[in-house]
């Protein structure tokens, strides 16, 4: 099968049948475009001509690029290539998977950066008082910290997703749904936004079921949500780096520090594996040291 057609078929598969997000599909598309370009330059235009040795040379060439790609980017590239060839075998287009012996590079384990509780509280009250967009921004920030939602999940919420009172329905990766509790602070902030601000924003644009709307009535984008977070961090005079994932990291870290079971945090975050969640247990090592220092008779 022609490589360009094989890649198109695979991208349709992960979009329609697997339901991956537009952001994830876009990353796969970019990776496979690099792969296709390299194979074309090597005179390979059919899937049957791709061997394990060919893929090995491709990865070696990519590793040698200056500046070299980060280990995480190289790992994702390999994942994209493996996904393509596994798909071709499953669909009966090819008999063998030439990527079967491909091993991902070791990526350094990075501990997620979490804010302190004091920093979070300053961040949440940073949006200006009674201004409509300030009320919206406060609701967004409170909801992100209260639920541990990804930014993409928060901006993808519909008003009906709040219909269950003190719980919220989130749609995660692969369109998987999960139910998470919503604390009173977040609920009050969202209620204030729904009653005092959202009707006015909705009147400015086309009818939309989305919970969070922009100044012109269109659904709030991920990029706009990121700007809300960055602006709040600047207002709160937080010098630590604050990214779209910071409140999610802080949510998980503070739950574990408060005694929550890692399996419960896994469920709330929507992680498929508890191993993904366990990285947050390392963040609390300072707390363990403090407890040890004050509790053990021979610690000092």
UniProtKB/TrEMBL annotation:
InterPro entries: CB (IPR044068), DNA_brk_join_enz (IPR011010), Integrase-like_cat_sf (IPR013762), Integrase_catalytic (IPR002104), Integrase_recombinase_N (IPR010998), Integrase_SAM-like_N (IPR004107), Recomb_XerD (IPR011932), Tyrosine_recombinase_XerC/XerD (IPR023009)
Gene Ontology BP annotations: cell division; chromosome segregation; DNA transposition
Record-annotated Core-binding (CB) domain positions: 1-89
UniProt-annotated location(s): Cytoplasm
Principal location listed in the UniProt entry: cytoplasm
Keywords of the record: Cell cycle, Cell division, Chromosome partition, Cytoplasm, DNA integration, DNA recombination, DNA-binding
Taxonomy, superkingdom: Bacteria
Pfam families registered for this protein in UniProt: Phage_int_SAM_1, Phage_integrase
GO cellular component term of the entry, any: cytoplasm
PANTHER family referenced in this protein's UniProt entry, alphabetically: PHAGE INTEGRASE-RELATED, TYROSINE RECOMBINASE XERC
HAMAP family xrefs: Recomb_XerC_XerD, Recomb_XerD
Protein function: Site-specific tyrosine recombinase, which acts by catalyzing the cutting and rejoining of the recombining DNA molecules. The XerC-XerD complex is essential to convert dimers of the bacterial chromosome into monomers to permit their segregation at cell division. It also contributes to the segregational stability of plasmids.
Oligomeric and partner information: Forms a cyclic heterotetrameric complex composed of two molecules of XerC and two molecules of XerD.
Protein name: Tyrosine recombinase XerD
The species this protein was found in: Microbacterium tenebrionis
Lineage of origin: Bacteria, Bacillati, Actinomycetota, Actinomycetes, Micrococcales
Gene that this sequence comes from: xerD
């Amino acid at each position: 099968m022609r490589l360009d057609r094989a890649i198109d078929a695979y991208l349709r598969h992960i979009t329609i049948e697997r339901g991956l997000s537009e952001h994830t599909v876009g990353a796969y598309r970019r990776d496979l475009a690099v792969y296709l370009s390299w194979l074309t330059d090597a005179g390979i235009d059919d899937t049957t001509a791709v061997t394990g040795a060919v893929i090995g040379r491709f990865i070696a060439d990519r590793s040698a690029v200056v500046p070299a790609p980060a280990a995480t980017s190289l790992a994702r590239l390999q994942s994209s290539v493996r996904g393509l060839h596994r798909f071709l075998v499953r669909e009966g287009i090819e008999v063998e998977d030439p990527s079967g012996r491909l091993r991902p590079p070791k990526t350094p384990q990075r501990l997620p950066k979490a804010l302190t509780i004091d920093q979070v509280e300053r961040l949440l009250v940073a949006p200006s008082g009674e201004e409509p967009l300030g009320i919206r921004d406060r609701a967004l920030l409170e909801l992100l910290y209260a639920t541990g939602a990804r930014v993409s999940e928060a901006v993808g919420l519909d008003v009906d997703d709040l219909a269950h009172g003190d719980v919220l329905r989130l749609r995660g990766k692969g369109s998987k749904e999960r139910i998470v509790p919503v604390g009173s602070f977040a609920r009050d902030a969202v209620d204030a936004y729904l009653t005092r601000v959202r009707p006015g924003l909705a009147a400015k644009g086309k009818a939309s079921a989305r919970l969070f709307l922009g100044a012109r009535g269109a659904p709030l984008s991920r990029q706009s949500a990121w700007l809300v977070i960055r602006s709040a961090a600047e207002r709160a005079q937080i010098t630590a780096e604050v990214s779209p994932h910071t409140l999610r990291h802080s949510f998980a870290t503070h739950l574990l520090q408060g005694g929550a079971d890692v399996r419960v945090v896994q469920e709330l975050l929507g992680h498929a594996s508890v191993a993904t969640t366990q990285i947050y247990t390392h963040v609390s090592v300072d707390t363990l040291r403090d407890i040890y220092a004050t509790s053990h008779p021979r610690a000092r």
